[in-house]
Amino acid sequence: MRVFVTGASGWIGSAVVPELVSAGHSVLGLVRSDAAAERVRGAGAEPLRGSLDDLGSLRSGAERADAVIHLANKHDWSNPAESNRAERAAVEALLDALEGSGKPFALAAGTAFAPGRLVTEDDANPASGPDAPRGGTEALALDAVARGVHSISLRFAPTVHGAGGEHGFIPQVVEAARRNGAAGYVGDGSNRWSAVHRRDAAVLVLRALETASAGSRVHVVAEEGVTTREVAEAIGAALGVPAVSVAPADAGDHFGWIAGFWGLDIPASNALTRERFDWTPAHPTLLEDIRSGAYTC
Predict the structure, then answer these.
(1) pLDDT tens track for 28-54
(2) What is the rounded CA–CA span in Å between residue 83 and residue 127?
(3) CA distance 8 to 28
(4) Domain NAD-dependent epimerase/dehydratase: where (predicted)?
(5) Residues 20 and 84 in one domain
(6) pLDDT at 76
(7) Which end of the chain has the lower number of beta carbons within 10 A, N or C?
(8) Is residue 277 in a domain?
(9) 174 and 139: one domain?
(10) For residue 235, is pLDDT > 80?
C-alpha cells in the first residue's frame, strides 16, 4: 500500500515510517520543514510539504494514498483550544477526502478519558463535538465508518517512551525534579499511568493498519499501569535526587502545567489488543528506559 502519514518525522511517526517501509509499503510523509523532509527521506519515504493548518495538503496526501495514518497534533498545552480546533479541522478534511473509498484511516487517540478505572478496548470515549478534548475526533472518525471510511482508533498510552526521551509528559516531570531538587509524585503516588515503547507501538500500528476491522479501537499500550511513585523513584535515582510526595494543593507549584495530569489515575488494558493482533511488546519498559538514562542524560 501507499500510506500517507501525518506527523511522519515526529516522535511516534519516526518509528512508524521505517516499520511501514520494512514491511514493503511506500510512505508519503507530511512535513513542515526542510529538516523534517530530510529525516523522512532518510527513512525511505517521500515527503509532502504541508501542515495541519494546510488542509489542502492533507486532502492531497489522502487522495494520493491507499491508507492514512494520522499521528500529527499541535500538542500546544498553553492553548489547548487551538490544538483541539486544528485537530478537528484536520480530521474533517481527511475524512472528506476518504469518504466512500473504503481506505483505512488510522487515527491517533488516547486512553485517558475515564480516570480511576481500567479502560478497555470495548469502552467508548464519551468525548465528542468540536469543543471536546482532541476535538472529539475519535468519535468523528469512528462515525465515518458509515460514510465508507475504514476508520481505526489507535489509542496510545499517555507515555510513549524510548531512547532520546519522548516529547511529552515524562520530560516535564524530569524537568520539575531538576528544578526542585526532588522527583515528585502527587499524594501517595498510587495513581497509575499506562506506557508503551515507541518501537513496540510502531509494530502494532502496522498490524492494525493491515488487519484491523473498520471501527476497531486498538490500545497501543504495553504496560497497563505503572504507579507515578515508581516513575518518580526511577527519575530520582537517575538524577541523584530524592523521590518525594507532593500534596495535591502544592502540585501546581511543583510540577507546573502538567500537575493536573500527573495526579490522574489513568490505567488502560491491552488484553484484547494483544489477542486480536498477536502482539507481544518486546522493548524496554518505561522504568527501564528511565533507569538507563533515556530521560536524564
Answers:
(1) 999 999 999 999 999 999 999 999 999
(2) 15
(3) 8
(4) 3-216
(5) yes
(6) 85
(7) C
(8) no
(9) no
(10) yes
Strand spans (E) along 71-129: 104-110
What does 90-152 look like in DSSP terms, one character per residue?
HHHHHHHHHTTS--EEEEEEESTTSTTS-B-TTPPP---STTSGGGGHHHHHHHGGGGT-EEE
Place of cell 510512505: 27
Helices of type H across 29-75: 34-42, 55-63
pLDDT of residue 195: 97
Q: Which domain holds residue 148?
A: 2-159+196-221
Helices 55-63 + 80-98 axis angle, to 10: 30
Kindly calculate the radius of gyration of the chain based on its CA atoms and give it in whole angstroms: 19
| Number of domains the chain is built from | 2
For residues 260 and 209, membership in a common domain is answered with no
**Is there a single domain that holds both residue 146 and residue 255?**
no
Q: 106 with 174, same domain?
A: no
Q: Global pTM?
A: 0.95
Answer whether residue 86 is part of any domain: yes
